[in-house]
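Review session, final week

We close the course with one last complete record, chosen because it touches almost every idea we covered. It is MFS transporter, a protein from Chryseobacterium pennipullorum with 529 residues. Go through it on your own first, then we will talk.
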Amino acid sequence: MQIHLIPVFREWIPEWLARTLIFGILMTSLFSFAAYSSPAAVMGYYGVEPADVQYGMVITYGSAVTFLALDFRIVKYFTSRKYLLTGLILNSVSSLACFYSKSWILFLLSGFVQGIACALLCSIVLQMTFPRLHSTRARIIGYTLLYAGIQISVPFYAIYSSIMLQFFDFNWLFYGQNVVLMAMAVIVWVTMNAKARFHKKFPLFQVDWAGYFFYTLFCLTLGYILVYGRQSGWFDSSVITVLSIFAVVLLTIFIAREMSVKRPLINLRIFRTGNCIIGLLLLVVFYIFKGTTGLTYAYVETILKTDPLHTIPMWISVIMGTVLSMFVTSRLLLSGTPLVRLILSGFVIMALYYFYMLEFVSVTGDSTDFIFPLFIYGVATGVLFVPIVTFTASAAPPSIAFNASLIGIFSRFVGFCISIAINNQVQLLTKSSAREQIRESVEATNSRLPLVLEDIRSSYLNAGNDVYNAQEASQIHFNSLIKEQILIRATRDYYYIMLAGLLCILLILFLLPKIRKVVLNLRKGNIPY
């Protein structure tokens, strides 16, 4: 038998177990992002700022995005088991380094390596999944399971982090990750054929290593600009200005190179298709509105004083909403429901999430009030993700449809970075506005202010404090109440802005008749990312 026709799994592995192992490998590949589930823990352990943690996520994500484009060639050279074990070992070594070290630079370098390992493992999962699916029905179910795994990985690993950090220090997250990686490596070694490969062996000549270098450098530079731009003052900063010029130069070189080489990293002719561009923009928009939940969890932990363990029901509600909606969405796709109708429905459901958040954000709320809104959020992401991806893939010309997947994951990365920039900028503006409104209210018009301060001071005196300590403590307590009110008002203003933006997107989609012509067309040879 030819090597590329040898089954990936050994003959004694039943199909149901093979599919379970594939899904397990997918979830393991996304373990690298578990460390970012608790930004406060990362900041406390490494002594860094919030923007540094955000850029750490950008490095890992960007590394995965860019290596996926290169992986398309590399995966054809190695046997599947060797390639998969390489990814698991890379991930394990970098996790072990983070477990024993408190160096932030090492953490970032390990994050870059883990991004490559994540891309490598995800690529193997895709190669094992979609060649097994022959009908359109099976491919839709494959898309649904793949993207459901990606979507639920964030809340799933947030639950893992919440439990681990309740009992262990931050670095033990990497220990748990290493245990899972080693267990998966043993399972892969036992269950997969050593000589099996997905394609005939293809030599690594004319691989666009230079294109990969420019692509990676551009993504990391773009991420840095969008993460640190607000705190640096954007173009008032010489660093941001120079990096912006550098990013434009990198992008120009990359485009010129990809248009001239025989085997480009990404075929940029994909941008000649109008509906495909609309699909890519929808992915960017989706990730911008999807990236607002961090503010919700910050509000719950900061204002409502909810410990991480009690946020687990909220994470579970997101998982349940995502899984349920993706199941229903796949059934609707199979029944022939137009893609545009599903996309519009998803954005409407997302708007309902913002309406609910505006209703429940207050100083007297309870964490249980947010279980249902976050369930709605999970439903919205589940309804939107698969239709937008299939819309983009279906709009692409058959000869270059694979490149729609590569540009699609880049669009998700850009949307993720833009969401960070918008969150940082809008929160700064809304907090400044709220701080000014509260200052005017407290200092100029509120005649009850002296009574409130006296009540707070009296409570500390009654608790046994002397006059001096009671006065100091009451002022600190009052300042904390002011900060809470500023955060609450800023949060509400932020959700108002995002809701207004979402309604504008819905209006634009209603006014674009061209997108209604795109029909579901998932080609057998097309492997999504």
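Two points worth writing down before the exam:
The chain has three domains: 1-208, 209-262, 272-439+474-528.
The mean pLDDT is 81.
Good luck, everyone.
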